[in-house]
């Protein structure tokens, strides 16, 4: 009987291991002090996850918070990469650069490893959850994850409400005395609307080491308040550090919950036509709850289908004018839009430029618009650039001036479009006499207005070849 049990366990082990086609280790630093252990599945779904173990930034718990996840993930067809990062010892740039380097390698090797470079997520545990949230909120576009999984994460760097030694080890004793650093690396403060990747947070309600209410819950609230996609699973018990350990009472439920969440992540096709929606609050989706799902760019994605990849780079209150009160080209969203290297660009700016404090620099509107076009063409020489005129300002809310829009801004847009060979979508005319499509402020489209914008723009994109 014992022999059969041993044989059965051996066969089970072989079956589990068979899901991993290759396992190998790569150096992330020239001295080998940071490494990445790679687990490639036999059959790839195209999805990949970069794993970040915890350990309070004083050690690496890379067993149950690292390697132990490899079998389950590879069985799902997910490539898995565990980063054994350098400990910060007060120098946060060491672990940050190690993880960013890991992302570069994974995306650069995507074709060889059977990975979709647009479907690479990050999964961190405890202090590794903090590091994962730092990469998700601070990293440049090319090394930012496409999705984020946070197990009982340290989020706050305020040691009074967080894990003290994670805070001290990451920022250093001096950094802990710097309120700006503490705030900036308390990552719930730096979640960006549309730009911070979708996230799922996994914790136990009775976590005594990293208080959930002042850490994981704060990140969830920041994501939800920004309208970003975020889910949260809080199990009744489990304390801290359960990771992928089978001893966790809710282990099977955890795998089901996480598995379903991962299946719901619809990644863009690798050859999808990239559409960048650039603009102000109308593009951003001001006044529309969960604009990441119901703003015009999200609805545009649904209408265009899987052959397109639409991203929302809208930022509320921004101007085309570089001397305006909030210039768009000063924003992270603009930097991201360029890094996106779009095939199609839909620009909808100008409404805020009509305000008196901004239009005093109106003579520079043309040159600033041409600068934007020049910079877009520098990164995407063949991009199809579309200028959308502002929709009517039915009210003068926030000193937005309909007369300036009609008599000054739209004529300049039309002249630049003619000179540069750009397409113009005249939303101003198409939204005329459509007050029912905007919010009570008379400026921002409501849900029906966002749907109308998506209809107009999708029709133009699909009916006219690039």
Distance between the termini: 70 Å
Return Rg in Å: 24 Å
Model regions low in confidence, pLDDT < 50 over at least 5 residues: 1-18
Overall, the morphology is globular
Individual helix count: 18
Strand content: 15-25%
Number-wise, the strands total 13
The mean pLDDT is 94
Structural class: alpha/beta
Q: Kindly state the percentage of residues in helix.
A: 25-40%
Widest β-sheet, arrangement of strands: 1-2-4-3-5-6-7-8
**Could you give a short account of the major beta sheet?**
8 strands, mixed
Topology:
Elements: H1 2-18, E1 20-27, E2 35-41, E3 48-52, H2 70-75, E4 79-84, H3 93-108, H4 110-113, E5 120-125, H5 127-138, E6 148-151, H6 164-175, H7 179-184, E7 199-204, H8 216-225, E8 230-235, H9 251-264, E9 273-279, H10 281-284, H11 291-294, H12 296-304, E10 308-314, H13 332-340, E11 344-348, H14 356-359, H15 365-379, E12 384-388, H16 402-420, E13 423-425, H17 427-430, H18 447-463
Parallel strand pairs: 3-4, 3-5, 5-6, 6-7, 7-8, 9-10, 9-11, 11-12, 12-13
Antiparallel strand pairs: 1-2, 2-4
């Amino acid at each position: 009987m014992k022999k059969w049990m041993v044989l059965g366990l051996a066969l089970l082990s072989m079956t589990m291991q068979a899901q991993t086609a290759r396992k190998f280790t790569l150096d992330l630093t020239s001295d080998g002090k940071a490494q990445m252990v790679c687990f490639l599945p036999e059959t790839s779904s195209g999805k990949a996850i970069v794993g970040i173990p915890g350990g309070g930034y004083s050690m690496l718990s890379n067993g149950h918070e690292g390697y132990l996840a490899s079998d389950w993930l590879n069985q799902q067809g997910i490539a898995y990469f565990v980063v054994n990062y350098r400990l910060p010892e007060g120098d946060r740039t060491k672990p940050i650069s190690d993880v960013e380097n890991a992302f570069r390698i994974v995306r650069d090797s995507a074709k060889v490893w059977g990975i979709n470079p647009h479907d690479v997520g990050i999964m961190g545990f405890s202090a590794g959850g903090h590091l994962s949230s730092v990469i998700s909120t601070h990293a440049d576009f090319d090394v930012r994850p496409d999705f984020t999984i946070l197990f009982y994460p340290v989020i706050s760097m305020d040691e009074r409400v967080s894990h003290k030694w994670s805070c001290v080890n990451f920022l250093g004793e001096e950094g802990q005395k710097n309120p700006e650093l503490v705030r900036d690396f308390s990552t719930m403060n730096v979640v960006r609307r549309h730009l911070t990747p979708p996230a799922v947070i996994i914790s136990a309600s009775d976590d005594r080491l990293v208080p959930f209410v002042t850490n994981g819950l704060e990140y969830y609230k920041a994501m939800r308040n920004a309208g970003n996609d975020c889910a949260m699973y809080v199990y009744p018990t489990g304390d801290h550090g359960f990771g992928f350990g089978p001893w966790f009472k809710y282990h099977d439920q955890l795998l089901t919950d996480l598995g379903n969440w991962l299946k719901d992540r619809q990644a863009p096709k690798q050859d999808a036509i990239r559409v960048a929606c650039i603009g102000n609050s109308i593009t951003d989706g001001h006044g529309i709850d969960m604009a990441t799902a119901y703003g015009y760019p999200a609805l545009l994605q649904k209408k265009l289908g899987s052959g397109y990849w639409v991203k929302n780079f809208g930022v509320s209150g921004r101007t085309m004018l570089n001397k305006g009160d909030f210039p768009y080209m000063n924003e992270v969203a603009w930097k991201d839009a360029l890094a996106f290297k779009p095939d199609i660009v839909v620009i909808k700016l100008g409404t805020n430029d009509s305000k008196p404090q901004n239009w005093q620099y109106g003579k520079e509107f043309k040159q600033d618009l041409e600068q934007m076009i020049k910079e877009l063409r520098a990164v995407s020489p063949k991009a199809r650039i579309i200028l959308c005129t502002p929709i009517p300002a039915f009210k003068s809310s926030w000193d937005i001036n309909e007369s300036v829009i009609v008599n000054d801004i739209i004529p300049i847009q039309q002249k630049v479009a003619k000179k540069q060979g750009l397409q113009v979508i005249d939303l101003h005319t198409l939204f005329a006499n459509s007050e029912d499509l905007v919010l009570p402020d008379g400026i921002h489209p409501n849900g029906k207005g966002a749907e109308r914008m998506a209809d107009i723009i999708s029709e133009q994109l699909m009916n006219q070849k690039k």
